[in-house]
């Protein structure tokens, strides 16, 4: 099954084809479940003018936050960006554009993008600044707004394990936005902790079927914790 | 006397029914988990993709891949399920979560809520709050009755940009428990020692007081 | 966790509350992954005027087909109904109404119903009889039709295993429409082969989280095979 | 001489590229799986929720919970994934399946296809066909070039109710391989021994014949 071997051996190969002004959809919630090495490669490549779609924009010096250092991000689509001083600075300076999107709407926009659904209706955001300028329609007497789906030139995803066909599973809450991101990239790159043999993940337990995945790379992860809280604390 | 944060959380917890699925916002709402009666069980939903959120981990249980929506390390309780953000918000938006508890800057007598944006101040984002207020069956707002300058947060009409419309049914403040219906705040309970007059004075929106208003019991 | 114990011990309890003229969403694909005992209970209850939403309507004498025998179904929403002589007869007699819906649209209508999305756009069915009378809108130069979501008074689901909190997993291709059906019922009843202890199914492998499930019953299954084909054949 | 069903399937299989995800309809399309070159691999998608459909089972492998979209017992190949119908059609609708092969009653020069409904006859349903033709990247129709009365199935405009519009790019009949573009059928290959004249005679829609038309090779 040579044609289905999606494993690449270098980050250069993993992100080959990424160009200025492209849209990148990234999995992750805060610093949990983020494709650390792929983000590092984007920084190394120095591409700029990026539109990045991700729930958050990392923190200063880690995660997507490192792409702010050289002003590689033109526009951020996210639900919460409050963890990042550099982000605030660039936003206030007008160097960075942000499109705040409710978290559930963001997840659904990615899913819809991957599933060939160009738009859907949701009550979320109706009557708020999020609903401004969007079409309103009533169903069963309740008003909803129309939201359009999102697709990206690239999707960068962090999974726990994948086989060479691209079948992925995620670990614990590091799943978050990754499965939807995986469906929504023209080119989907998955960075994993471990590459396993096909068949090792039982077919019904695969979270992301390989059909969505173009490239798989084994990474190493720092897995920084944003807020370590323990029972004794 | 005005309730402490812990007392507000205690009163919130009394609202939960056995078998409730509950999403708790950051701050006072999160504290409510500590005061759930031993007679009942609730299951906590964390919108990053965890149903059945457990206690904080011991030092040796800390796992970067196991966090809650506040990005804190956490554990899963027995019988928990873990899923994607799309599935998590399908649950929320689809009305499967029984109670959502969250803080607010303002609530008005239409049940509108403003909780995420103060014009002129830096906006950090709404996170999952707009989805939660659009989707949950019962939404309880916890907040102080008035701001530190004494201005009421229970208004005829919210002044700040909204998080959601016609969605709030209950408010538990440091002074009272109120229900919103028919475009008014119905006073249901007073904090121990707080008079109806004080509540009336600090409620800018339309307040309805029917009969004797009991004190909260803890 | 008494409040979360969803296990019931009789089919009467499992389907309590089902009344004439209600809408029932049923999982299953052909005869694969169907809640055999719950269907049997509906027959036994004798309720009529039902709208049944399911990919197929069983076969003569098995699966949803048995609900035709006493004319309990008023309307069928399905993608394919070609396996059933009694169905054809009632349809031609005008005793039965059918709303043919493309399979993927049907799956998405159920998912959307459970997810609080009242309508979505799809290219499927545009320019065909399915698109007639539906709103058409262009996105990126391609025409799409608007489809509304489906919810039911009851959803009847067949899972492999569930715990008493209602967390379910499905076996092989008996998954099919079951996960979406499970989300779309006001009352969702799951019939399973085995009830396991909470925690036995790892949290990240649960297909249907218990929040969607109201009742769980252990059933016995005939699992009739529609088209047995073997390698030697 | 007109191709047999097996020969049509063989010619279909030549279209697949190494690493293709392919959905095969019932009938001749399903046969194509038997003729995939040993040099390449394709993965079969079955729309009831199986990616990586394998061979039919041995007698002792038969499992009622393991079927394909034709409701036949089947196996999963190594590396297969199994998922819900919603996920399956997310793949299909979202354009992730590389090839869909299906039969038809009629195809027209606009790429419209009619394959599911004959007015006056009992309608069994479209199953997943409308989703497949709306979603796949490359759609190959297999059918006889003309019906048993000799009437062409390649039309200027479909007469039967449609399954999808502007979606068919390739047709492989018992007589020819044709590509649809610019509102015409472009003749690309002839079945061995079949003349361009015979194909022209049996093609009601606009046929474009550019240069020498090679015979199919098997």
Automatic annotation (TrEMBL), chains A, C:
SMART domains: CoA_trans. It comes from the Bacteria. The keyword Protease does not apply. Keywords: Transferase. GO terms for molecular function: transferase activity. InterPro entries: 3-oxoacid_CoA-transf_A (IPR012792), CoA_trans_fam_I (IPR004165), NagB/RpiA_transferase-like (IPR037171). The keyword Transferase applies. NCBIfam families: pcaI_scoA_fam. This is Succinyl-CoA--3-ketoacid-CoA transferase. The lineage of its organism: Bacteria, Pseudomonadati, Pseudomonadota, Gammaproteobacteria, Alteromonadales.
From TrEMBL, chains B, D:
PANTHER family: KETOACID-COENZYME A TRANSFERASE, SUCCINYL-COA:3-KETOACID COENZYME A TRANSFERASE SUBUNIT B-RELATED. The keyword Transferase applies. Pfam families: CoA_trans (PF01144). This is Succinyl-CoA--3-ketoacid-CoA transferase. SMART domains: CoA_trans. Belongs to the 3-oxoacid CoA-transferase subunit B family. GO terms for molecular function: transferase activity. It comes from Lacimicrobium alkaliphilum. Keywords: Transferase. The keyword Hydrolase does not apply.
């Amino acid at each position: 099954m040579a044609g289905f071997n999606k494993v690449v051996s270098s980050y250069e190969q993993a992100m080959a084809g990424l160009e200025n002004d492209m849209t990148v959809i990234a999995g992750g919630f805060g610093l949990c479940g983020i494709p650390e090495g792929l983000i590092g490669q984007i920084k190394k490549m120095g591409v700029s003018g990026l539109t990045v779609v991700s729930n958050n924009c990392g923190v200063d010096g880690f995660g997507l936050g490192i792409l702010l250092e050289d002003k590689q991000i033109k526009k951020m689509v996210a639900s919460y960006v409050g963890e990042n001083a550099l982000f605030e600075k660039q936003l206030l300076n007008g160097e960075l554009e942000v499109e705040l999107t409710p978290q559930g709407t963001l997840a659904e926009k990615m899913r819809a993008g991957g599933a060939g659904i160009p738009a859907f209706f949701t009550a979320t955001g109706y009557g708020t600044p999020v609903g401004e300028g969007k079409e309103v329609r009533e169903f069963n007497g309740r008003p909803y707004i129309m939201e359009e789906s999102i697709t990206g030139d690239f999707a960068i995803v962090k999974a726990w394990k994948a086989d060479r066909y691209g079948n992925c599973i995620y670990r614990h809450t590091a799943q978050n936005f990754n499965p939807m991101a995986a469906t929504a990239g023209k080119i989907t790159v998955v960075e994993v902790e471990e590459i396993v043999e096909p068949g090792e993940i039982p077919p019904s337990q695969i979270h992301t079927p390989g059909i969505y995945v173009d490239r798989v790379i084994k990474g190493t992860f720092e897995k920084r914790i944003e807020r370590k809280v323990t029972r004794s604390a | 006397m005005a309730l402490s944060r812990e007392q507000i959380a205690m009163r919130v917890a009394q609202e939960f029914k056995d078998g409730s699925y509950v999403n708790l916002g950051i701050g006072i709402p999160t504290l409510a988990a500590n005061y759930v009666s031993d007679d009942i069980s609730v299951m906590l939903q964390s919108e990053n993709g965890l149903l059945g959120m457990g206690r904080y981990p011991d030092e040796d249980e800390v796992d970067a891949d196991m966090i809650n929506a506040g990005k804190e390390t956490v554990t899963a309780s027995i019988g928990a399920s873990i899923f994607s953000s799309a599935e998590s918000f399908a649950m929320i938006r689809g009305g499967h979560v029984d109670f959502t508890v969250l803080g607010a800057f303002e609530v008005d007598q239409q049940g509108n809520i403003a909780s995420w944006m103060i014009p002129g101040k830096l906006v950090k984002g709404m996170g999952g709050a707009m989805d939660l207020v659009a989707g949950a069956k019962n939404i309880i707002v916890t907040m102080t009755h008035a701001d530190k300058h004494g201005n009421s947060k229970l208004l005829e009409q919210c002044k700040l940009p909204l998080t959601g419309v016609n969605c709030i049914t209950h408010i538990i403040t440091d002074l009272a428990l109120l229900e919103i219906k028919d475009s008014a705040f119905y006073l249901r309970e007073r904090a121990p020692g707080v008079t109806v007059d004080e509540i009336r004075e600090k409620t800018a929106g339309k307040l309805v007081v029917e009969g004797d208003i009991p004190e909260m019991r803890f």
